[in-house]
Structures are given as structure tokens and as C-alpha cells.
Automatic annotation (TrEMBL):
Binding residues annotated for S-adenosyl-L-methionine, in chain numbering: G195, E196, S227, S249, L250, H251, N330
Keyword Iron-sulfur set for record: yes
Residues that hold [4Fe-4S] cluster according to the record: C139, C143, C146
Annotated organism of origin: Acinetobacter stercoris
Listed name of the protein: Dual-specificity RNA methyltransferase RlmN
Record's keyword annotation contains Iron: yes
GO biological process: rRNA base methylation; tRNA methylation
Family: Belongs to the radical SAM superfamily. RlmN family.
Reactions that this protein is recorded to catalyse: adenosine(2503) in 23S rRNA + 2 reduced [2Fe-2S]-[ferredoxin] + 2 S-adenosyl-L-methionine = 2-methyladenosine(2503) in 23S rRNA + 5'-deoxyadenosine + L-methionine + 2 oxidized [2Fe-2S]-[ferredoxin] + S-adenosyl-L-homocysteine; adenosine(37) in tRNA + 2 reduced [2Fe-2S]-[ferredoxin] + 2 S-adenosyl-L-methionine = 2-methyladenosine(37) in tRNA + 5'-deoxyadenosine + L-methionine + 2 oxidized [2Fe-2S]-[ferredoxin] + S-adenosyl-L-homocysteine
HAMAP family: RNA_methyltr_RlmN (MF_01849)
Length: 405
């Protein structure tokens, strides 16, 4: 349920707004079942939910007056108690290579900002536009190579704030287009921006159901991917609740190294994580999005990119249908790692490809607008003392090295 605002009291066609219930209900983040219930509670037919969802998510209309297949009386009623409100865009930047980036304000605090990046690419099905969506403001998991982790955790995003990122990305292509000619542009979504999506489970699940809904974005389930650092119990829950593609931020082929790079590994070590991935895979024919898992592996110079790491990875994944995506690291200020050399990345890829894995190297895009993966926080203000502590730790380490050397 969209719990971001208290609903005004709605009973059998009559709107009762109590003095304290002044905040309007934001319809943007409501799934179809929630919106059907909302209309039924108003004494309206539930098919109205599908009509309104189409206006919002397919024609990008935020003014009820433009919803011409809905009676004037109902439009007036909706106007009084509802709104359709995407998060406020405080910064937008469109790269020469087609990459687009938005910074959204999602609260009053100085650091209440999240980022969304859209990356275009060509594939055999035509032009692809992949949107990387954030699920939390900051992140509590503190992966050592991730700039978001250095910001600490502020709060979960609501469904309206999550789906609002997709709405805005589509709308950015439609602003000048007449309502009747508007169509959706984003073809793929990855829940891979700021935050760990499985730690904001209900809001992410509800948002993904809107992405898949034919009355909203109608996206193919194979084109909606949730990326997790490995919250094992929630992977099992996800398998029961929805059919979307799964990606794992793996980044290390053994527990010792992964404990350091992705600390949640101490709670859910590799054996448990790989077993959860195997359970997630279905044998339900080609229709399922769950035929394989995508393994994300950031290439850190001299840390996880050696030939023995490639061999360990082969062993780890030998019984898991998977595709591997190698990500050249994008250093951020005070990052304790560097990017692996091109030759090192290609050699790593060759080892995996020769063993029969589909293994790709992610192209870095949008460098001119600071939109590459791992730089999502960009200029976002530091909301906790974690970044300061991190810088202090690096300075101390450098001091020790200087005095030893
Ligand atoms: S990599 Fe993902 S899970 Fe890890 S700190 Fe960054 S945002 Fe959080």
C-alpha cells in the first residue's frame, strides 16, 4: 500500500475531508490493485483504476481535467483529494552520447537527493533505453568500492518516488509531444541505483508491478531487472512474489575478499547466496525472466582481477546458469581502488568466455555528465559522518605508508 500520505476519508461517493486530512493522495505510486480498492472505497467502479493509470503512465498526464474519458463529476472529485506528483527534478544533464541523468529532491533535508541515469544502446531488437533507478536515499550496506555506501543511509523511497523516476525519464522525451501522440520510451529498467532494493522490499515490489502492468508501462518481465548485493531471504521472497530478472552484485569470487568488498557477505556468505540464486532460476520454459542470473563484477586493479580470481569465479558459478558483466571501476574522490587495466579486463573475460560463459564488458557511458555506474551520488551532500570517517581512514593509511616508506 502506498503509505506516503494519510488518505482523506472516502465513503460511498462522498468525500469527507477532516481538518487534519489535508494532504492529497498521490496516485502516481499506486499499483492497480491499490487503485481499484481506492476507487471502490469512493463508491466508483474499479475499472476507473485502469483508465486513470493509462492517463498517468502512458500519456504522462498530471491534470485530471485532461482525462477526457472520465466524467466531469469524478474528475472534480479526484481534483479535490488526489494529486499526481513526481519527485522534483533539481538537476538534469543530457550527455552527447545520449545518456541522461536526473537528480531528484525527495525530502526537505539538505542531502535528500537521489539520482537516476538513462543509458541508450543498440541491440538486435533495436534501440534500447535502460534506466537505472534508485530505491533508497543513501545505503546502509557500505560496500567498500561504492560512493553511495560512503554517504550512509537516510531513508527508503516511497513507491511514488521510485516509479516517479521512470515516469520522469519517459516524460523527458514527451514534454513537447501532444498528449494523444505520447508513447513510452524507456525499454529496460534496472533497480541498480542508490540503495539496496531488497531492503525496501514492499515499495520496490509495488513499483515493479506498475512497470509490468499493461495499464501502465507494460514492460516485458525480462526487461525489468532487480540487482541485489545478496539479501538471501528476500531473494526467496522475490521468487514467490514476481517474475523479473535478477542480477547479483558479486564482485568477489571467495568469502574472504567479498567480506571486505561487500560486507553483507558476512551475514549471507557465498554458499548461501549461490544456493538462493539456484532456487530463483525456474525451469518454466522460455517465458520466464528467470532463466539465468546476471553476475555483476566490478574490476578493481590488483584486488579481484587476477587470473586466480577468474578461476575461482568459474568454480563458484559452474552450476549456476549465469551471464557475467564485468564493470570497469569508476574511481570517485578518495576511492581506495583503481580501475583494472584494459588488458587485465580482457584477459579475465577470455578465461570466462573460454569456459563457456557469456561474459561482457560494460561500456562506460556519460562520462561528460558524471553518470557512470558508481558515481551515482555525484555531488550529493554527505549526510552522515561516514564519508568523513572514510577520508580520515584513507589519510591515516597514507600516513602509515609514508612513514614506512
Ligand atoms: S553497491 Fe549497492 S548495496 Fe553496496 S553500498 Fe552501494 S548502493 Fe549499497
Amino acid at each position: 500500500m502506498n503509505s506516503e500520505v494519510a488518505h482523506p476519508s472516502v465513503a460511498q461517493g462522498e468525500i469527507k475531508t477532516s481538518p487534519e486530512a489535508i494532504q492529497k493522495v498521490n496516485l502516481l505510486g499506486m499499483s492497480r490493485s491499490e487503485m481499484e480498492k481506492f476507487f471502490e472505497d469512493m463508491g466508483e467502479k474499479k475499472f476507473r483504476a485502469g483508465q486513470v493509470m493509462k492517463w498517468i503512465h502512458q500519456f504522462f498526464v498530471t491534470d485530471f481535467a485532461e482525462m477526457t474519458n472520465i466524467s466531469g463529476k469524478l474528475r472534480e472529485k479526484l481534483e479535490k483529494i488526489c494529486e499526481i506528483k513526481a519527485p522534483e527534478v533539481v538537476h538534469r544533464n543530457y550527455s552527447k552520447d545520449g545518456t541522461r541523468k536526473w537528480v531528484f529532491r525527495v525530502g526537505d533535508g539538505e542531502g535528500s537527493l537521489v539520482e537516476t541515469v538513462l543509458i541508450p544502446a543498440e541491440d538486435k531488437t533495436g534501440e534500447r533505453k535502460t534506466l537505472c533507478i534508485s530505491s533508497q536515499v543513501g545505503c546502509a550496506l557500505d560496500c567498500s568500492f561504492c560512493s553511495t555506501g560512503k554517504q550512509g543511509f537516510q531513508r527508503d523511497l516511497t513507491p511514488a518516488e521510485i516509479i516517479g523516476q521512470l515516469w520522469m525519464a519517459n516524460f523527458s522525451y514527451m514534454e513537447e509531444v501532444p498528449v494523444a501522440e505520447r508513447e513510452r520510451s524507456v525499454t529496460n529498467v534496472v533497480m541498480m541505483g542508490m540503495g539496496e532494493p531488497l531492503l525496501n522490499y514492499d515499495a520496490v515490489l509495488s513499483s515493479m508491478s506498475i512497470m509490468l502492468d499493461d495499464f501502465a508501462y507494460g514492460m516485458s518481465k525480462r526487461r525489468v531487472t532487480l540487482s541485489t548485493s545478496g539479501v538471501v531471504p528476500k531473494i526467496d521472497q522475490l521468487a514467490k512474489d514476481i517474475d523479473v530478472a535478477l542480477a547479483i552484485s558479486l564482485h568477489a569470487p571467495n568469502d574472504e575478499l567479498r567480506n571486505e568488498l561487500v560486507p553483507i557477505n558476512k551475514k549471507y556468505p557465498l554458499e548461501q547466496l549461490i544456493a538462493a540464486c539456484q532456487r530463483y532460476i525456474t525451469k518454466d520454459g522460455n517465458e520466464s525472466a528467470r532463466k539465468h542470473v546476471t553476475i555483476e563484477y566490478v574490476m578493481l586493479d590488483g584486488v579481484n582481477d587476477k587470473p586466480e580470481h577468474a578461476q575461482q569465479l568459474l568454480k563458484l558459478l559452474k552450476n549456476l546458469p549465469s551471464k557475467i558483466n564485468l564493470i570497469p571501476f569508476n574511481p570517485f574522490p578518495h576511492a581506495p581502488y583503481g580501475r583494472s587495466s584494459r588488458n587485465r579486463i580482457i584477459a579475465f573475460q577470455k578465461t570466462l568466455s573460454d569456459a563457456g560463459f557469456v561474459c561482457t564488458i560494460r561500456q562506460t557511458r556519460g562520462d561528460d555528465i558524471d553518470a557512470a555506474c558508481g558515481q551515482l551520488v555525484g555531488q550529493v551532500a554527505d549526510r552522515t559522518r561516514r564519508a568523513a570517517q572514510w577520508k580520515k581512514k584513507i589519510a591515516e593509511k597514507n600516513e602509515i605508508l609514508r612513514s614506512e616508506g
